């Protein structure tokens, strides 16, 4: 009896402070709800380039889309679509809509993409993808008919390789590459080697060659230069290529365990073209 009574008393005594604390907490919450809260105001964005107005890129685009006869088909890996600092929208803003068409995906079958299949089968279509079988675009442009179409794959090097080799359509056009030793100006993103270029840079050089107009390259590169400048001013760091980091002992990430990836890094250090 005493034990039971004592148990009930202890239980009741323990409940008192808990209930009191709960009451204090509720009262505290009610007080918090009465405090003024500042609403988060979204930064005003430009309707054209979708960037905050303070770093709007529109002043760096051409006033009117560039007049070109060459048509670009950008084959974009889905992962690139979600990147904030991607370059394809900058390229598209410089060209007429019918001269820069973007297709997003990994696999492109003839049944699902009949227009692309027709383009790939056209004798005036080129695909910009480096390799042993690729001819230099500068040489091809001298004899190739105009107007032409150029297909460019947008993604990391591994993503581009996957798209190129797993879509038979992309081996129908003549394969070409750029013969250039210039370094990329897309310094806010790491490239595999010092001479790897962004999609926008490849397109700018290719169009300048096909149209025989160096001014096209300068015009298309202008928004990219502005983008990188804005990012660096707001805390971004210059990204050296993986090749540069490896050669100078600055690569601070764990070395890959995959033998194929490790071999690629060894080739980069030894100046072997990959």
Overview of the structural elements:
By secondary structure, the chain is an alpha/beta fold. The chain folds into two domains: 53-61 and 68-233, Alpha/beta knot (3-Layer(aba) Sandwich), CATH 3.40.1280; 240-274, no CATH class. It is 43% helix and 10% strand. The chain has ten helices and six strands; from the N terminus they run H-E-H-H-E-H-E-E-H-E-H-E-H-H-H-H. Residues 12-23 have a biased composition (Low complexity). It catalyses: a uridine in tRNA + S-adenosyl-L-methionine = a 3-[(3S)-3-amino-3-carboxypropyl]uridine in tRNA + S-methyl-5'-thioadenosine + H(+).
What percent of residues adopt helix (DSSP H or I)? 40-55%
Radius of gyration: 29 Å
Describe the largest sheet.
6 strands, parallel
Number of β-strand runs: 6
User: From N to C, what is the helix and strand string?
Assistant: HEHHEHEEHEHEHHHH
Q: Kindly provide the name of the CATH class of the largest domain.
A: Alpha Beta
Features:
single chain; alpha/beta; Alpha/beta knot; 2 domains; 6-stranded parallel beta sheet; 43% helix
Lay out the secondary structure:
Elements lengths: L1 H32 L37 E6 L1 H4 L6 H7 L5 E5 L9 H8 L3 E4 L6 E2 H7 L5 E6 L2 H9 L8 E4 L21 H13 L2 H20 L8 H6 L11 H11 L5
Parallel strand pairs: 1-2, 1-5, 3-5, 3-6, 4-6
Short description:
The protein is α/β, with parallel strands linked by helices. It contains ten helices and six strands; from the N terminus they run αβααβαββαβαβαααα. It has two domains: about 55-60 and about 70-235, Alpha/beta knot; about 240-274, no CATH class.
């Amino acid at each position: 009896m005493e034990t039971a009574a004592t148990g009930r008393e202890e239980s009741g005594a323990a409940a008192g402070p808990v209930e009191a604390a709960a009451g204090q907490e509720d009262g505290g919450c009610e007080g918090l709800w009465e405090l003024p809260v500042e609403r988060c105001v979204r930064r005003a964005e430009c309707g054209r380039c979708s960037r905050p107005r303070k770093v709007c890129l529109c002043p760096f685009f051409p006033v009117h889309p560039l007049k070109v006869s060459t048509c670009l088909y950008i084959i974009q890996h889905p992962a690139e679509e979600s990147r904030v600092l991607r370059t394809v929208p900058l390229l598209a803003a410089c060209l007429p809509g019918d001269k820069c068409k973007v297709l997003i995906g990994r696999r492109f079958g003839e049944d699902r993409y009949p227009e692309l299949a027709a383009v790939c089968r056209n004798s005036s279509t080129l695909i910009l993808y480096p390799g042993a079988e690729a001819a230099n675009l500068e040489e091809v442009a001298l004899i190739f008919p105009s107007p032409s179409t150029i297909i460019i794959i947008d993604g990391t090097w591994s993503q581009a390789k996957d798209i190129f080799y797993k879509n038979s359509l992309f081996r129908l056009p003549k394969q070409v590459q750029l013969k250039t030793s210039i370094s990329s100006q897309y310094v806010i993103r790491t490239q595999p080697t010092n001479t790897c270029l962004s999609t926008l840079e490849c397109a700018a050089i290719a169009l300048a060659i096909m149209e025989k107009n160096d001014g096209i390259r300068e015009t298309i590169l202008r928004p990219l230069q502005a983008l990188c400048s804005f990012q660096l001013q707001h805390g971004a760091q210059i990204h050296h290529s993986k090749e540069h980091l490896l050669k100078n002992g600055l690569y601070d990430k764990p070395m890959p365990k995959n033998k194929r990836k490790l071999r690629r890094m060894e080739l980069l250090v030894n100046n072997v073209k990959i």
